[in-house]
């Protein structure tokens, strides 16, 4: 089962793509840091300094300015995330985040899907604020208890 989230970003696809793959940019909207540039077959360590947490993702596929596919999560619950960039014109891009691997028979499925959707919408909102308006302080604003 999958969970699809979409948002329009008023920037060209190459700027949206670079925000993810360039370690110097990702801290402006999502994780605090990324260990290295995102490239196919690399394992990337993402850190959240504010929460004293980190996780590794495995980059499965990269199509420059068009798509990033990675795997994350514990082996029993590993999921695949596909970030697709659809450039409408030189100043408008639709970004789609599709996360697959949710178990349909999981008693917590609805909770996990809602929580997942909330996270992607928030990340994309932070990305939009960063790329369109230069706001880089939204990333740590979400409070979850």
User: Which sequence of SSEs, written as H and E, runs from N to C?
Assistant: EHHEEEEEEH
How many H/I helices?
Answer: 3
Find the count of extended strands (DSSP E, 2+ residues): 7
Overall CATH class: Alpha Beta
Alpha-carbon Rg, integer: 15 Å
Q: Outline the biggest β-sheet.
A: 7 strands, antiparallel
Short summary:
The protein has helices at 13-21, 23-26, 109-133; strands at 2-9, 33-34, 43-48, 53-63, 67-72, 79-89, 92-100. It has 145 residues and is of the alpha+beta class.
List its traits.
about 140 residues; alpha+beta; globular; 7-stranded antiparallel β-sheet; Alpha-D-Glucose-1,6-Bisphosphate, Chain A, domain 4
Q: What does this entry look like structurally?
A:
With 145 residues, the protein is α+β, with helices and mostly antiparallel strands. It is built from three helices and seven strands. The protein has helices spanning 13-21, 23-26, 109-133; strands spanning 2-9, 33-34, 43-48, 53-63, 67-72, 79-89, 92-100. The chain has a seven-stranded antiparallel β-sheet. The two termini are 26 Å apart.
């Amino acid at each position: 089962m999958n969970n699809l989230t979409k948002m329009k970003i008023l920037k060209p696809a190459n700027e949206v793509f670079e925000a993810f793959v360039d370690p110097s940019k990702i801290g402006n909207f999502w994780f605090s840091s990324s260990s290295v540039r995102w490239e196919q077959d690399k394992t990337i360590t993402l850190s959240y300094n504010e929460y004293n947490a980190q996780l590794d993702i495995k980059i499965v596929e990269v199509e420059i300015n068009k798509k990033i596919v990675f795997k994350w999560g514990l082996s029993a619950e590993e999921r695949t995330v596909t970030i697709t960039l659809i450039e409408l014109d030189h100043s408008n891009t639709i970004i789609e985040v599709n996360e697959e691997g949710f178990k349909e028979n999981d008693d917590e499925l609805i909770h996990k899907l809602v929580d997942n959707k909330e996270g992607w919408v928030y990340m994309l909102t932070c990305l939009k604020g960063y790329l369109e308006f230069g706001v880089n302080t939204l990333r740590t604003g979400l409070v979850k208890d």
